[in-house]
Structures are given as structure tokens and as C-alpha cells.
Design a protein that fits this description.
The structure holds two protein chains of two kinds. Chain A is an all-alpha fold. Chain A has helices spanning 2-8, 10-17, 19-50, 57-73, 78-99, 109-131, 156-178, 180-190, 192-197, 202-228, 237-248, 253-278, 283-297; strands at residues 146-149, 152-155. Chain A has a two-stranded antiparallel sheet with strand order 1-2. Chain A is globular and about 65 Å long. By secondary structure, chain B is mostly helical. Chain B has a domain at 45-266. Chain B is built from 14 helices and four strands. The mean pLDDT of chain B is 85. Chain B has helices at residues 13-16, 23-43, 46-72, 80-97, 103-122, 131-150, 182-203, 207-217, 219-224, 229-256, 266-279, 284-308, 313-334, 339-352; strands at 163-164, 169-170, 173-174, 258-259. In chain B, the strands form two sheets. A two-stranded antiparallel sheet of chain B has the order 1-4. In chain B, helix 7 packs antiparallel against helix 10 (229-256) and helix 8 packs across helix 10. The chains are: A mainly alpha, B mainly alpha.
Chain lengths: 311, 357
């Protein structure tokens, strides 16, 4: 009876007791959610355009952040270092297309997935070999001061992260809908063969997609790196982005954003209010269970395309 | 020439239905088994047995289990580590709660627990498939590891949080625990793998195995021809988790002797998945070959980089990651169907050799 009370009644009483604290928890969840969305966005871009489930997205973010820190350690000013890192990501995208994906065209999805796992190992080793594996600080001069609105504590950095995510989504939306390359990307995502037959070069399109995903990873890497230091655990955020993906749908950009926010908030609220009842540290699996429960109702995720199957 | 079936006529039904209908296959298998059971324990030293051969046998069993689910029934699972953990913790609880229980019974019963958990986490497979399912099985992975960490009952409230394999005898010979001889453990693991390998080989050519493959190839079509997707998928989850659970219990009792949940984390799931992809999806032999490859490659790489090139252990570790990732991509590009496919090609070549025309 006590357990039931602690599980079903007490948390809600706590929420009603101090709504300001609840709002702070939700805001903390939202800001974590934005971070998840940034990583999930890279997944969605690649999955949409090439059907590759890119497990290396988290490691791409780590690699980008490592490279950026490495350049800045050489004394290169931050804006130029960011541009140079962006260039590195584009070169990397080209290399991935040329050396890996081109040879795996028409293979089954699981083979492509495993090849990105191999890629994750490779990039992790490469980043550590080039730049060393100790924890590094990343400081681009993003303000981190906290301030209060109506008694709710906010952090400038979180606002910057949210703003940059919003900007990125807007830029991507314009890119996908208004530019020639963007239209080609959507065509490829719809149907590879039809796109090929109207003269869209598949190979260069894949380079573009992986470059864009690399740039998204760079932004994610900057945000995560500033927040918690550039270190190996950065690559594990890929595991956090997966429930976001299945919640939002593998093929939907808005799904990645909304899914990220839902997961972020759900995770934080569950940890703060229900964690003590269950013994704590439930953040690790709660997101997955949340996403799983959701999938049982809507197998294609929140915004995914309806799965239609024919024999 | 060497591998020619011509002239091997079947004169009765039982010969036609044999698991290995071709004489050369039977000879090859017999040679391999005699070598593994008799020659290896005589010539291998303790380092080889403990660091390479026993882990290889345990991983091969886990890969066999996952191959049933992913290779034959087509359901991608990233929860292998979690299911193995269920087996390990169930066997620990059984062995410590019922000290009189025969060790074989302990291992098999812990498999049953794992099968039950597998069925539970397999239920989503009825609604979702492909990568959605793969991510969903991660829920099992993270939840189970968290559970075994949090609930003290599972590790008998041991302050260090680890579980230790208690010493147990079979036929009067000490088989588990720190004092057991490596070659005894090796033979135990080998016997388990042989039995499970033969059972699986038989299972996948039965009605059950054929219905798994029908579900894998196209589940809607399979449903239309009268295969019950609910039962078939859950059966695949159950049997696969059973085998993985036994492998997890072996990991505790025969390989590591003392484990904590860290041993069963997500990396183990990926490792076993690598084994079946590199070895060959939907092939019993592929599971074994893949496990051998994935166990030997890191050890060989470390020896090569540190021992021969004289690199420092830490930088060698990073380089090892790179080479490991690169080799996986290389193998996927060269032979996406796995090492088992290479074996098939070799057999076809041997059929004509030395007169290829």
C-alpha cells in the first residue's frame, strides 16, 4: 500500500506542492532534450536520404569536438577553427562515401548498420590517436550565466543551445525545400531508382547528406562539449538519441525535435519524482521504456510515415 | 574431386533425412570433434585455454543463440547482453540457494528463466520490426542491467556487488570455481556447444526452423500461408534467449568465475552481433567461426602492435580500435554474407578441383 502510495500519489503531491521546482525540472529536461534532438537530427538526415541507420553519429559529434579543440589548442581563433573543422567534416563525409558506402550499395540494411558501427570504432580510435584521450575543455565564449524569471532559474547557455537548434532546423527546412540540392535529397529519400532515372547523381548526393550530418554533429559536439567537456562519453549520447528516434519516427525532422523534448522532459521528471521510489538512476532505461510503450500504440513513431506493407 | 557427392546413393528414408548426408561432411565433423575433444586438451597450455579457447566457446554459444533469433527468424536484437545477464544471475541464485542441485540442471534451468524474460521482451516484435525493434530490445538491455545492479537480492547482498561462481562437481570432478582445472572447464564448455550446435542444426531444418525462415523472408506472406506469427516469433525469442542465458551462465561459471553487471553491458551485445554478421547470418557454423574470429582478432592485434612493433599499450589501444573498425568494414565489403559463405565457395571449388573444367 505504501509503495502504491509512493508511486501513484506522492509524486503528484510533490508537484502540486512546489510548482516552481517542477517548472525548473521541466526546463532542465527541455534543455537536455534539445541536446538529444541535435544528435537525433543527424540520424534522421542520413536515414531519410540513404536508408542507413548511422550508429556513428554520436562518434561523429565527438570527433568534430575533438578536432575543434585540437585546432584551438594550436592557437587558431575560434571562428576560423570552427570553419576548419567544418571542412574536415566535409572531407570525412567524402571519404566515408568513397571508401565505405560506395562498396555497400544494395546491401541489406543490417550490413550497412554494422558498417557504421565499424566506422564508429574507427573514428573513435582515430580521434584519440590524433588528439589524445584526456578530457578537454571547450570554450567558445558562449555565455553561461544563470538568471531568474519569476523565481525560475534559467541558464543563458541553455537558451543559446535551444536557439541554435531552432536556427539549424530552420536552415535545414529552407535547404530541403528551397534549394536544388535539397529537392534532389528529398527525391533520393523518396525513391532511389526514380531519382537516378531523372538524372540525380546518387553518389554526390550521399556526400552532401553525410556532410550535412557532419555539420549537425559539429553543432551537437560544440554544445555537448561546452556543457560537459570533450571526452569519450560524448559518443555514448548516440545511445540517448535512439529512443528519441523511435519516438519521433526515423524519417521525420520535426519528430526528432519533438521526440527529443518529450524524452528529455520525461526522463528528468521521472528521475526526480519517481527515481527515489525505484532506487534511482532510472534515466538510463526510462527513455527506452517510454519509447517502447509508445511504439506499441503507434509502430511508426510520432511523425513517421505510416508503414504500409504488401505481399 | 575431394568433395564429390557423386556415387553416394541414399537407399532408405533415414539416410535421406540425415543431418549430414554427405560422407565428407561427416568425416570433417568427426575430425574436428576428435581434435577439439582429445588433441586440444593434451597440447594447449593454461593461457590458451583460459584466455582464448574458453571465451571462444562461451561466445560461440551466445552467437548461436543470437543467430537463431536474428539469422533464422530475422528479428534484430541488441539485448543479448541483458539476456546473458539473466542467465548468469539466475544460475548464481540457483546454485547458491540449492547447493545440492546438479550443475547441468542449474545451467539449463537458468536458461529457462532467460527464455521467460526473452518472451516478455519479444512481445513488441509483434507490432514493430527492423530497426524500431532493434532499438526496442535496447530497453531490455538497459533495464535488466539496471535491475541486477539495484536489487541486492540478485547478488545475495554482496557488498562488492559481484557474483562469484561457487565450486561444483560433476561426476566427482571439480568443474567450476577458482580451483577447477582449465581443461575440465574447456571440455564442459565444448560439450555444451556441441550439444547445442547439433540441436540447433536439427531444429532449423524442422517445421519450426522453416517457419522461422518464412517469417524472416516475408512475415505477411508467411502469415497468409498459415504460419502463426505470434507463436513463431515468441518461440524464436524464447529459444534464442534460452541459449544466450546458458551462455551467460557459462560466462560466470566457466569463463570469468566472478562477474559484475559491467561484463554484460551494451558492448557485449554489439560484440555478439558482430560475431554473427562476420561469421554469417543464418548459419550454425558461421556463429562458431565468427566467434573465433572476434575473439582472436583483438588478442592478435594487441600482440602484434605491442609485442612486435613495440608500441606503448595506451596508444596501441587507440590504434587497435581503428584497425578493428577498419577490418570490420573491410570484411563487410569483401564478404557481406560472412565467413560461412567463404566456406561454401571453398566446397564448390573443391568439388571440381583439380580439374575445374
Amino acid at each position: 500500500m505504501d509503495t502504491l502510495y509512493a508511486f501513484f500519489v506522492a509524486p503528484f503531491l510533490d508537484i502540486a506542492d512546489s510548482p516552481v521546482f517542477f517548472i525548473e525540472v521541466v526546463i532542465g529536461g527541455l534543455s537536455a532534450g534539445v541536446m538529444y534532438s541535435l544528435v537525433a537530427l543527424g540520424f534522421v538526415l542520413i536515414f531519410k536520404a540513404s536508408g542507413v541507420f548511422n550508429f556513428a553519429q554520436g562518434v561523429l559529434a565527438l570527433f568534430a569536438a575533438l578536432t575543434l579543440v585540437g585546432f584551438m589548442d594550436w592557437g587558431i581563433p575560434a571562428p576560423i577553427a570552427v570553419l576548419m573543422t567544418a571542412a574536415v567534416m566535409v572531407v570525412l563525409a567524402y571519404a566515408i562515401e568513397r571508401l565505405v558506402l560506395r562498396h555497400l550499395v544494395n546491401q541489406e540494411q543490417i550490413i550497412l548498420f554494422m558498417s557504421t558501427l565499424g566506422l564508429a570504432y574507427f573514428l573513435e580510435g582515430l580521434g584519440d590517436t590524433l588528439w589524445g584521450s584526456n578530457v578537454k575543455r571547450l570554450d567558445l565564449g558562449i555565455p553561461e550565466a544563470s538568471f531568474e524569471i519569476q523565481g525560475v532559474l534559467l541558464n543563458q547557455f541553455e537558451l543559446v543551445a535551444a536557439a541554435s537548434a531552432a536556427t539549424m532546423v530552420a536552415v535545414l527546412a529552407v535547404f530541403f525545400h528551397r534549394t536544388r540540392v535539397g529537392r534532389a535529397l528529398r527525391a533520393v529519400a523518396d525513391d532511389h531508382q526514380a531519382a537516378l532515372s531523372v538524372g540525380i547523381p546518387l553518389k554526390s548526393i550521399w556526400v552532401v547528406v553525410w556532410s550535412v550530418a557532419g555539420l549537425v554533429a559539429l553543432v551537437a559536439g560544440i554544445m555537448w562539449g561546452t556543457k560537459s567537456g570533450v571526452q569519450f562519453s560524448l559518443s555514448l549520447i548516440a545511445l540517448k538519441a535512439l529512443p528519441v528516434l523511435i519516438l519521433g519516427g526515423f524519417t521525420s525532422v520535426p519528430g526528432a525535435i519533438v521526440g527529443g523534448l518529450i524524452i528529455g522532459v520525461g526522463e528528468k521528471v521521472a528521475e526526480v519524482y519517481w527515481g527515489p521510489v525505484l532506487g534511482g538512476a532510472i534515466e538510463n532505461w526510462f527513455a527506452y521504456v517510454l519509447a517502447l510503450g509508445f511504439l506499441l500504440v503507434r509502430p511508426q513513431g510520432l511523425f513517421g510515415e505510416k508503414i504500409i506493407e504488401r505481399v | 574431386m575431394l568433395y564429390r557427392e557423386a556415387g553416394q546413393f541414399k537407399t532408405n528414408y533415414s539416410a535421406d533425412q540425415a543431418i549430414f548426408p554427405i560422407l565428407q561432411d561427416r568425416i570433417f565433423l568427426a575430425v574436428v570433434l576428435i581434435f577439439a575433444f582429445v588433441v586440444v586438451p593434451l597440447i594447449a597450455n593454461d593461457y590458451w585455454l583460459q584466455a582464448i579457447l574458453i571465451p571462444f566457446l562461451v561466445y560461440a554459444l551466445a552467437a548461436l543463440g543470437l543467430n537463431i533469433l536474428t539469422g533464422y527468424a530475422g528479428q534484430i536484437s541488441l539485448g543479448t547482453g541483458g539476456f546473458m545477464a539473466v542467465g548468469a544471475y539466475a544460475s548464481y541464485k540457483l546454485a547458491t540457494s540449492f547447493p545440492e542441485m546438479n550443475i547441468i540442471v542449474v545451467l539449463l534451468t537458468s536458461g529457462l528463466f532467460s527464455a521467460a524474460v526473452g518472451i516478455f521482451f519479444g512481445i513488441p516484435s509483434l507490432r514493430i520490426k527492423g530497426f524500431y525493434l532493434a532499438v526496442a530490445t535496447l530497453a531490455a538491455q538497459f533495464f535488466l542491467i539496471w535491475l541486477f545492479n539495484k536489487v541486492g537480492w540478485f547478488y545475495n547482498y554482496n557488498p562488492s556487488g559481484t557474483i562469484d561462481a561457487p565450486p561444483r562437481e560433476l561426476f566427482g570432478i571439480l568443474i567450476t570455481g577458482a580451483a577447477a582445472k582449465p581443461w575440465v572447464k574447456y571440455l564442459a564448455a565444448l560439450s555444451m556447444l556441441t550439444v547445442f550446435g547439433l540441436v540447433t542444426k536439427n531444429l532449423v531444418r524442422s517445421a519450426v526452423g522453416r517457419s522461422w525462415m518464412a517469417i524472416r523472408d516475408m512475415d505477411i506472406a508467411a502469415e497468409i500461408i498459415g504460419i502463426n506469427p505470434l507463436g513463431t516469433k515468441l518461440l524464436a525469442f524464447a529459444i534464442s534467449s534460452f541459449v544466450c542465458g546458458v551462455a551467460g551462465a557459462e560466462m560466470l561459471f566457466l569463463h570469468l568465475g566472478s562477474v559484475e553487471t559491467l561484463a554484460f553491458d551494451i558492448n557485449l551485445s554489439f560484440l555478439v552481433l558482430f560475431m554473427i554478421i562476420i561469421g554469417g547470418l543464418g548459419s550454425v557454423m558461421g556463429s562458431v567461426v565468427g566467434a573465433a574470429f572476434m575473439v582472436l582478432m583483438p588478442i592478435g592485434l594487441t600482440n602484434f602492435l605491442v609485442g612486435w612493433l613495440g608500441m606503448q599499450a595506451t596508444s596501441a589501444k587507440h590504434l587497435e580500435f581503428m584497425v578493428f573498425g577498419g577490418l570490420i568494414i573491410f570484411f563487410l565489403i569483401v564478404e557481406p554474407n560472412g565467413l560461412a559463405r567463404l566456406w561454401q565457395i571453398a566446397k564448390e571449388k573443391l568439388r571440381l578441383w583439380p580439374f575445374p573444367h
